[in-house]
Design goal:
Length: about 190
Amino acid sequence: MEWLPFSIAELKDTIVKCNISSISGPDYILWNYLKVVVNDTKCCSNIVNITNTCIDLSYWLTHFKKSMLIIILKPNKPFYNTPKAFCSIVLHSTLGKLIKKMISYRLQVYSITSNFIYTSQLGGIKQHSTIDAGIFLTHLIWTGWVKRLHTSTLVFDIAQFFSSLNHCIFSMILTKVGFGFKVFNFFSDYSINR
């Protein structure tokens, strides 16, 4: 599967969906500033060039790998003398997050069009929201009731999925989906020193 260069239209489509209330990372660029910068044609094409160059060279910039950890108090805790009373938030470069969103959307589109993602996969897929999962679950329950069956549900959340993902296996999956060595090598570099 050939990886096509990103376009300005893809960048603008991605940034429109970004939440401007997010906190900036180590680059101190706020989303609302980045949305103004993208309105300038030259700046927009430079961001697209950075993105395409990262993929072409199979290199994720060290600047984008840097993160900042913020620790905040969890509300309504009786004591703040244990680690469980605090919540840690990792902040990444805003520009890096924008580029990751573009790459993520492209990976998803390619994976869906190549029929690699199972059709009933609901989590983390565009146009497969929590509402879709709820409707599907309701359908299963009603179908069971018609057949006089009882339905049980087990729900779990996978926290910190990417950090626990085996990066070697992830790279092999990308190859199996049909992505070329350019994408394989990019994600091999992406996962180093994270």
